[in-house]
Design brief:
The chain is mostly helical. The protein is built from twelve helices and no strands.
Length: about 300
C-alpha cells in the first residue's frame, strides 16, 4: 500500500509539471519576470524617445539653428564628399590593422621584460621601464611631429619617408607603452602558486610563462585591451597632421573647397560606425568576464 501511495504521489507531481518540467509556481515566476522585462523595455524606450524629442526640439528651435544646419548638415555637400572621405577611411582602417598587430607584439614583449626577475635582467627591466615612461609621457600629437618629420630629416638609409608608415610607427610606439602596462597588470594578477605549480611540473621559466601565465593574463585583460583599441580607432585619424590623405584630411580638403563643415560631420559619423562594433565587443567580453568571476 505504501508503494501504491508513493506511485500515486509521483503521478500527481508529474501531472503538475508541464512538458518543460516546470511547476505551476515556477511558470508563474517566469511569467512575472517576462512581464517585468517587457515593462522595463517599454519604459526605457519611451523615456529615450521623450529625451530625444526634447533635445531635438531644443536644438531646432534655437535662434542659430538655420545657420548651423546650412554649415554642418548640408546633405548635398555631405553626399558629394562621401566618396573621398570613404577612400580616406580605407587608409585609416589599414593603418589601424597594422598598428594593432604591432602594438600587441611590442606591448607583450615590453610587459614580459618588465616582469623578469633577478639582478642580471636589471638593464632590460630599466630599458622597458624607461620606454614606458617616455612614450606614456609624450603626447601623441607631439610624437607624430617628432617622428613623422624628424626621422626623414636625418636622411638615413632605410628610414621610411611615407607619412602613413611613419604615422603607423608612431602609433605603435606610443600605444605599446599603454598596452604593456595592461599586459603587466594581467601577468602580475596571476597568483604566484600558478608559477610554482608549473615549475614543480618541470616546466622552465619560458614554458611556464608561455603555457600557464600568459594565457591567464591575456584572458583577464581582454576588456581593458579592447577599450584601448577603441581609443586607437579615433587616434588613427591624427596621422592627417603629417599630410596623409585619410578620412580627416579628405574632409578638410572638401571643407576648404566648399566652405562648409559638413564633410567633417561625415567623417565623424564614419569613425563612430567604425568604433561601435568594437565597443559592443568590449562590453560583451567585460560582461562575460564578470559572469565568470561571479561563478567562481
Amino acid at each position: 500500500m505504501a508503494g501504491l501511495g508513493g506511485v500515486g504521489t509521483g503521478a500527481a507531481v508529474t501531472k503538475a509539471l508541464d512538458t518543460t518540467g516546470l511547476s505551476p509556481l515556477a511558470r508563474e515566476r517566469q511569467a512575472y519576470r517576462r512581464s517585468r522585462a517587457r515593462r522595463s523595455t517599454l519604459v526605457a524606450l519611451a523615456s529615450t524617445l521623450v529625451f530625444a524629442a526634447a533635445v531635438l526640439f531644443g536644438v531646432t528651435s534655437s535662434p542659430g539653428w538655420p545657420r548651423v544646419q546650412d554649415t554642418f548638415l548640408d546633405l548635398e555637400v555631405g553626399w558629394s564628399a562621401l566618396p573621398d572621405v570613404l577612400a580616406g577611411l580605407w587608409l585609416n582602417v589599414r593603418v589601424l590593422v597594422v598598428a594593432e598587430v604591432g602594438i600587441l607584439v611590442l606591448g607583450l614583449v615590453i610587459a614580459v621584460l618588465r616582469t623578469l626577475r633577478g639582478p642580471v635582467f636589471f638593464p632590460l627591466r630599466a630599458l622597458a621601464t624607461g620606454y614606458v615612461d617616455l612614450f606614456r609621457g609624450v603626447p601623441l600629437l607631439i610624437a607624430l611631429y617628432l617622428i613623422g618629420f624628424g626621422l626623414p630629416a636625418l636622411r638615413l638609409q632605410g628610414v621610411p619617408t611615407d607619412v602613413a608608415v611613419l604615422g603607423t610607427i608612431t602609433l605603435i610606439l606610443v600605444y605599446s607603452a599603454y598596452v604593456a602596462e595592461v599586459f603587466r597588470a594581467g601577468i602580475e594578477s596571476v597568483h604566484p602558486s600558478q608559477r610554482a605549480a608549473a615549475r614543480s611540473l618541470g616546466l622552465t621559466h619560458r614554458q611556464s610563462m608561455r603555457l600557464v601565465i600568459l594565457p591567464q593574463a591575456v584572458r583577464r585583460v581582454l576588456p581593458p585591451l579592447l577599450n584601448d583599441f577603441v581609443a586607437l580607432q579615433k587616434d588613427v585619424g591624427l596621422i592627417s597632421v603629417l599630410g596623409a590623405v585619410d578620412a580627416i584630411r579628405a574632409a578638410q580638403i572638401a571643407s576648404a573647397r566648399t566652405f562648409d563643415f559638413t564633410p567633417y560631420v561625415v567623417a565623424a559619423l564614419l569613425f563612430v560606425l567604425l568604433a561601435i562594433p568594437t565597443g559592443r565587443i568590449a562590453d560583451a567580453v567585460a560582461a562575460r568576464a564578470a559572469r565568470r568571476e561571479g561563478l567562481r
